[in-house]
């Protein structure tokens, strides 16, 4: 029962953080929605940051599995698209991390270190993709431009959901699928000026194929979303 209570706290906290923003959610609100005492919640978690850190640990583990490309594996636009699809789905499930990142970084030293490490790994993976495409003759790019493009790939992948939320905060829930599809294309479109003709055509084909096939199912995280209480902040 104790383990179930802990899992329920994490699941509901994720839902509330995503819906209302992590800074606007208190441990009292979480306990109230779960119909448990604050003392019961503090038995499992010392404070709200402890809950955030546990959620981030699950997120980081799933993200590592998504971006961990074996060294011997050849670069491929299809794999890049699939990995980005998995990344954007995971980012949506844990969207409070990206939307509230500045606030979290300001007060949570543990997250500051881990997020910095994740961002660096994103840049490294993007650079490996570009180098692999260049080696395969699918991309023509200088070393200097390659590093710039790799950084921009990681930048847009990281902040796309926040950008789209700022554009349409009232309808982002309904446009989740379209937002993720656009995000994948925005990231990979950075490669277009450097792609060889055949690779550019293949990217265009991928965009066309995924136009109607991109789905919202198959999230890689542990804590799936369900309806939360009709709380108004």
Automatic annotation (TrEMBL):
Keyword field: DNA-binding
InterPro entries: Homeodomain-like_sf, HTH-type_Tx_Regulator, HTH_TetR, TetR
Pfam family, any one: TetR_N
All copies of domain HTH tetR-type, residue ranges: 3-63
Domain of life: Bacteria
Binding region for DNA: 26-45
GO MF annotation list: DNA binding
Record-given protein name: TetR/AcrR family transcriptional regulator
Species of origin: Parvibium lacunae
Organism ancestry: Bacteria, Pseudomonadati, Pseudomonadota, Betaproteobacteria, Burkholderiales
